[in-house]
Amino acid sequence: MTVTFDPTTLCYTADGLIPAIAQDESGAVLMMAWMNKETLAETLATGRVTYWSRSRQAFWRKGESSGHVQTLIDMRVDCDRDCLLMIVDQAGPACHTNRRSCFYTAIRDGVEVELMKPEV
Amino acid sequence: MTVTFDPTTLCYTADGLIPAIAQDESGAVLMMAWMNKETLAETLATGRVTYWSRSRQAFWRKGESSGHVQTLIDMRVDCDRDCLLMIVDQAGPACHTNRRSCFYTAIRDGVEVELMKPEV
């Protein structure tokens, strides 16, 4: 049985948003940001990952200014249909701090530990 | 310089919640759920992952009824301090559908594709 994907079947927040996790093919979780119906549609149509910027209230075409684009390899939706997981090809660092991943700080024994340095 | 982790420095939603992604040591992203200050503190103190159930408005000690507990290996926070990533040891399937991961549905060429079956 073939099920056509219908983006209206996803569960969005009251603001019309859904969290989207980006993971590279090595398994590294790079970042989590938000999408809405329109940015999800653009991401699926173009293969270029586009988020919704909550601070700017605008499309956020990842890498548009930095060049650090994310190319979609595979899009997944979870059982509750309220979260997306994207396997992406990440050009350069994903984080605005120039680190590969936004999750570069560990919490260990009550102390923050920096796991990676900015790329140069 | 040692930075003591202060949970009040995280960015929570208006409901006092923060998304938490669980990933196993193989790199598989298992699920995303929500925490609040109290469940995060319990998770860090006990090493047993505890979420906040939005539907039940109660502590959700993962695996309490199913036995599919998550043991915390490493807790990470992202650059914006509004998302957590946990490396966990997952006993059994993470998903309530009995699949290893909640992200078992891919969206490919406009069609939903089931990537994994429930464990038996």
Automatic annotation (TrEMBL), chains A, B:
Details of cofactor binding: Binds 1 zinc ion per subunit. Binds 1 Mg(2+) ion per subunit.
Span of domain Phosphoribosyl-AMP cyclohydrolase: 31-104
Residues that bind Mg(2+): D78, D80, D82
UniProt keyword annotations, A-Z: Amino-acid biosynthesis, Cytoplasm, Histidine biosynthesis, Hydrolase, Magnesium, Metal-binding, Zinc
Zinc keyword on record: yes
InterPro entries reported for this sequence: PRA-CH (IPR026660), PRib_AMP_CycHydrolase_dom (IPR002496), PRib_AMP_CycHydrolase_sf (IPR038019)
Compartment list: Cytoplasm
Pfam families in the cross-refs: PRA-CH (PF01502)
Essential cofactor(s): Zn(2+); Mg(2+)
GO biological process, one term: L-histidine biosynthetic process
UniProt: Zn(2+) binding residues: C79, C95, C102
EC number from the UniProt entry: 3.5.4.19
Family as reported in the entry's similarity comment: In the C-terminal section; belongs to the PRA-PH family. Belongs to the PRA-CH family.
Assembly description: Homodimer.
The protein's name: Phosphoribosyl-AMP cyclohydrolase
Gene name in the database record: hisI
